[in-house]
Write a structure and sequence with these properties.
alpha+beta, single chain, two-stranded antiparallel ribbon, about 170 residues, three-stranded antiparallel sheet
Length: about 170
């Protein structure tokens, strides 16, 4: 077992080497939030809420991406949108709750191979909730997530505590 642990640590260390070998950028990183005052070539001037304007030197391959809250009325043909949803049997797009529960359940089942075997049951229950979520209307997903994550963890934890107390 010690040899296996040592080999796993060595493999992890080797996998992390490329990240460690990267040279950090010159200077100290800082977050700049504010209003754009001027863009002049590769130089961007931002006026923060407090303090003097900050000039930022942009890389030649600099790109901008952002997320903005919009109403449905703001979206027009040609706009780019991204969504985290899944198309259900009824043809409608449903929120990601079902997929999230399915993936969490699957990963919990996989973890049971190396830990407590009973985790497989918890994973199966999460997957069942995920399957149900894919069939239910999206306005029920928040409740289903609360019941699944909160309720299943509390029930499973209580079960394990009772089992441990019984074994003593």
């Amino acid at each position: 077992m010690r040899v296996l642990s040592l080999l796993a640590a060595m493999l992890f260390s080797l996998a992390a080497l490329p990240a460690v070998a990267q040279a950090p950028p010159d200077g100290t990183p800082m977050v700049v939030r504010g209003t754009v005052e001027k863009l002049d070539g590769q130089s961007l001037t931002v006026k923060p809420k407090e303090g003097p304007p900050v000039t930022i030197a942009l890389a030649a391959n600099f790109t901008v991406a952002g997320v903005a809250k919009r109403s449905l009325a703001d979206i027009k043909p040609g706009d780019y949108v991204a969504t985290n949803s899944i198309k259900a049997a009824d043809g409608q797009l449903h929120a990601i709750a079902g997929t999230w529960l399915l993936l969490f359940g699957g990963s919990t089942m996989a973890a049971s191979v190396l830990t407590v075997r009973l985790l497989a049951w918890l994973g199966a229950l999460f997957m069942a909730f995920g399957a149900v979520a894919l069939l239910l209307p999206t306005n029920t997903h928040n409740v289903l997530l609360g019941v699944a994550f909160g309720g299943l963890h509390l029930l499973f934890g209580s079960f394990l505590m009772g089992r441990a107390a019984h074994e003593r």
